[in-house]
Amino acid sequence: MNIIEDLLNSLSKSKFRGSFHLNNKLKLYVKEKGMDTMQKHAYNIVNERLKPSFIPNDGKQTPMKQVHPVFIAQHATGTCCRKCLNRIHHIEMNKELSTQEVDYIVKVIVTWITKNS
Questions:
Q1: Residue 11 lies in a domain
Q2: pTM over cut 0.90
Q3: Residue 2 included in any domain
């Protein structure tokens, strides 16, 4: 297994993180749109909601309802807010995310969606 798969396996055992799943509607959405589109959406969401050094509503910027696969994946993978990114992925808070950090976060999200769709 690789590092991301090991991480996802560990997080899936958490009562909270393991409780997130894609409903049938979102699984169909993923199938219809494809993983390239999911990756584009993940980049857009991460760049808009997580990349800035200061996020005024940190911890509340990611919906928990079944509205988009990326949002569900973010909660399942601990990439939903800067606090979780710091605690789970050891990504420093209060600084703009680097390109490498954004790429890593998107890879984690897309890997989870691929495994769960």
A1: no
A2: yes
A3: no
Using CA atoms, how far apart are residues 42 and 46, in angstroms rounded to an integer? 6
C-alpha pair distances (Å), 76 with each of 15, 56, 96, 106: 10, 22, 23, 13
Residue 2 CA to residue 114 CA, distance in Å, equals 15
Q: Is the dihedral of CA 50, 52, 57, 59 positive or negative?
A: positive
**What is the domain count for the chain?**
1
Assigned domain for 8 exists: no
Show the tokens assigned to 9. Answer: 């396996």
- For residue 95, being part of any structural domain is answered with yes
Q: Which residue has the tokens 């899936």?
A: 12
Can you give the residue range of the structural domain that contains 38? Answer: 20-53+62-116
Q: Residue holding tokens 């399942």?
A: 76
What percent of the chain is helix, strand and coil (3-state, nearest 5)? 60, 0, 40
Yes or no: say if 108 and 7 are a contact pair by the CB < 8 Å rule: yes
pLDDT tens digits along 32-75: 999 999 999 999 999 999 999 998 888 888 888 889 999 999 99
